[in-house]
Amino acid sequence: MRSILWGLAALFALLPFAAWWLVRGSLPTLDGRLDLAGLSAAVEVERDRDGVVTIDASNQSDAARALGYVHAQERYFEMDLMRRTAAGELAELLGPSMLKADRKHRIHRFRHRARLHSEAFAGGHAETLRAYTEGVNAGLAHLKVRPWPYLLLGQAPQPWQAEDSALAGYAMYVNLQDASNGREAALRSMRPHLPAAVFDLLMRDGTRWDAPMQGQARGDAVLPDADAVDLRKLPGPVRPRPAPIDSSGTPGSNNFAVAGALTSDGRAILADDMHSRLSVPNVWFRARLRYGHETGRVDVSGFTLPGLPVVIAGSNGKVAWGFTNGYADTLDWDPHCGGKEASSCAALLQRKPAVEIIRVKGRDPVVLRVLDDERGPLIDDAVGQPPMQLHWTAYRPEGLNLDLATLHHARDVREALSQARTVGLPTANLMLADRRGRIAWTLIGPTISAHDSSDCRWPGTERASSERAATKAGPDSSMQRNCPDASAEYAAPPSIPPFIPPFIIDPPDHRLWTANNRTLDAASLNRIGDGGYSHGARAGQIRDALQQRRTFAEPDLLAVQLDDRALMLTPWWELMQAQARRGRSDSALAAMAQAAARWEGRASADSVSYRLVRAWRLAVHARILDGLTAPAQARMKHRFVMPQLPQFEGVAWPLATAQPKHLLSRRYPSWEALFEDAAQEVRQELSGQGALAQRTWGERNTAAICHPLASAVPLLGKRLLCMPRDPLPGDSGMPRVQGPAFGATERMVVSPGHEDSGIAHMPGGQSGHVFSPFWGRGHDDWVQGRRSPFLPGPAVYSLVLTPERKL
Cα(543)–Cα(730) distance, rounded to whole angstroms? Predict the structure, then answer.
């Protein structure tokens, strides 16, 4: 027994060392020579001190094969999560907790569509895709031990398939667009229960902060008078307090450019920072690809997405490009397929449902039956509505392809604009700059055409009630546009009609900007639609910062990206102070106003005033919105869902300043009571943390950027698998959009032909391996906003991949 006990003790003492040895076994090979089947010639793979990769190859196919190899060695688990997210296959790897997410995504049948549209996805890049896929599987096979997350989960990684690269693209659709079309469904369901004047307010499509590149600011809403609506006379819900509103995960991507006329040496400069949920490692992977012969050599640097053989954003020495989400209207409910009408989908309703098997780790599989055709599935969870067919550009053959790779070869902005017309990806603002000093913008990716019979878009982009009355539009004019009669059936999915996307090239003031905002107006906007584009304050701040300078260099554009001035909140701070002076000295609002008396005007980590004013504004928004939707809440009860209303500032501000009694929520006897109740909520929320005067924004906006499995490792998971808990400046209403786990997944400032002066930031680091020398490297530069180079630094590691020798 003593011997057994000593043996067990020794075994347990050795377990940590065994685990350490196993985990280290999944580290990628960084130095030396290795055979890689399929190469036509040797490929050199260098890494700098941060793990940024440079691949030198003789042709594009070899470069793609080597990139796939590196992606798999550094990021295979993250690639697996991405394909499984889109396909609805996470529960098979992670267990029953992911079943809800799998059901939500499986209804789109993206794996089926990836197979169905495989030729359209590969297009003229089939050889590149094949080489990349084989490179991925070779990189996985060459690891001595399977990637460490699979050891933790007790699973074996499944090989990569060409269709999985399409799933990586579909995952971006899921991430960037409203995959359930929930906003549109929520608005549709509440419309019958609201007075027209109230619904028009909710549908407000702009504010005084608008900053489109085409057209003018919409301005804030014109408030209806008491004859049009009186909330005090309408029913309201029986609930203690309206649900809070937060904006920690709101859209945040920016891109902008200045032409050569505004620089000392004629260089055009492009800035791009894409935002989404932050994790360790980062979603992007930095790489430089050099391939081809001297006469047609490609040298492209930037940010790749593991899973795809393409530089998503970067520069090739002649042209630089970057993206922001376009927020076009790319999803619609087919009003003729579902509910009481089924005129356009008789064949669909007679179909046998597709059977989707969702495998669940440790449990029996779950069967999901989906009724769909090439146009989309019939969905039965539209809020308060009968089942309806969902149309989404992601379902179409044109919706996804690898044509972005053609930008690797673009020689100037005009050629890039031409090449971009065929690119299939989630609709995006493409910003371009070339080495001749020219800049351009266009919208790329598929949109729902006005000629498509599914394009009875709801809600539309009509203006508010006062403008509608002026044009004598009918009561349903905000519900749809001019729609042709639906055909009885479709023999094949509708293709996207010829569409010349809007573009701007060489603007007269030599400046271009986007920030997820409305960029267009009039007919162009009507064609693109409103997919929930962001509030215009951020775009306006970028535009004004660009217009205030006459000359630029790369650090000047980085300063705009890092701008955390709270311009939109300054009027709210003034309102808080004014309301506090008019009220009781012992009120919660007075206490908040005193704690926020010094207004720094920035979302700096040490600012108390920013935190308090921000929280109070959101609490006021919630109460105003609760009052406006009260009749719908009363009638719909548990079926009511509050929609996302990114332009609501244009309604809340005129209400908060004009304070009309007929538009005041029934919950409150006066506007003063509403403001005080909002202040009480904020004070109550913060009271457990200490004095109001010590509640800084950094305390609330503390980084929580972790590996997906951080919570699965007991005791040490969050210590080992998360980045430092840094207090972060910035927020959603300014260019420096940062939340605890949401923010810029990349920052790039680059001038084509001058990449050595470029700047790049990336949070979370390059590698997904906790023992890698690249774990978290570069993250602190991102936090601090320090200038770090766009191009890879000197090589620290060098790996030569050679063609497999034949016996």
Answer: 18
Read off the pLDDT of residues 499-513 as tens digits, 9 standing for 90 and up.
Answer: 567 899 999 999 999
User: Residue 746: pLDDT band by 50, 70, 90 thresholds?
Assistant: very high
Say what angle helices 608-628 and 671-687 make with each other, to 10 degrees: 130
Encode 13-23: b = buried (16+ Cβ within 10 Å), e = exposed: eeeeeeeeeeb
Mean pLDDT across the chain, nearest whole number?
89
Q: Which residues neighbour 399 within 8 Å (Cβ) at sequence distance 6 or greater?
A: 117, 173, 392, 393, 424, 445, 446
Closest CA to 382 of 350, 335, 419: 335
DSSP conformational letter for 159: P
Helix-helix angle 671-687:570-582, to 10 degrees: 110
- The answer to whether 97 and 360 have CB atoms below 8 angstroms apart is no
Confidence tier at 6 by pLDDT (50, 70, 90): confident
Q: Describe the strand order of the beta sheet including 372-373 as a list of residue ranges.
A: 331-338, 388-392, 376-379, 372-373
Q: Which two tokens stand for residue 230?
A: 């009186």
Nearest C-alpha neighbor of 523 from the set 482, 464, 578: 482
- 203-217 pLDDT, tens digit each: 999 999 999 999 999
Give the chain's length: 807
Q: pLDDT exceeding 90 applies to what percent of the chain?
A: 78
3-class DSSP state of 66: helix
State pTM to two decimals. Answer: 0.91
Q: Name 24's Cβ contacts closer than 8 Å, sequence gap at least 6.
A: 771
> CA-based angle 300:301:307, to the nearest 5?
95
CA distance 452 to 485: 10
Strands, sheet with 742-744, edge to edge from the N-terminal-most edge strand: 275-277, 742-744, 738-739
Which residues on adjacent β-strands are paired with residue 803?
Answer: 36
Strands 53-57 and 285-291: parallel
| CA distances in angstroms from 450 to 153, 445, 525, 530, listed in the order given | 48, 15, 11, 13
Tracing tokens 């079926």 back to the chain, one arrives at 639
**Beta pairing class for 298-304 and 285-291:** antiparallel
The H helix count followed by the E strand count for the chain is 26, 25
Average pLDDT over residues 246-251: 74
Contact 252, 562 (CB under 8 A): no
pLDDT tens track for 265-296: 999 999 999 999 999 999 999 999 999 976 68
- Residue 271 three-state SS: strand
Average pLDDT over residues 631-635: 93
User: In 3D, which of 557, 505, 544, 552 has the Cα closest to residue 262?
Assistant: 552
The pLDDT of residue 664 is above 60: yes
Residues 151/709, Cβ–Cβ less than 8 Å: no
Q: In sequence order, what E strands does 461-606 have? A: 503-505, 511-514
CB 783, CB 705: distance < 8 Å: no
Plot region of 715 (φ>0 → left; ψ -120 to 50 → alpha; else → beta): left
Query: Cα separation of 579 and 411, whole Å?
Result: 58
**Six token digits for residue 334:** 């087919």
Cβ of 34: how many Cβ atoms within 10 Å?
14
Please choose, from the candidates 288, 206, 260, 151, the residue with its C-alpha nearest in 3D space to the C-alpha of residue 712.
Answer: 151
Phi-psi sector, 378: left (phi>0), alpha (psi -120 to 50), beta: beta
β-strands 32-36, 428-434: how paired?
A: unpaired
CA atoms within 13 A on the CB side of 800: 6
Please answer whether residues 656 and 650 qualify as being in contact, where contact means their C-beta atoms are separated by less than 8 angstroms.
no
183 sits in which H/E element: helix 182-190
Using alpha carbons, select from 517, 514, 525 the residue that is nearest to residue 457. Answer: 525
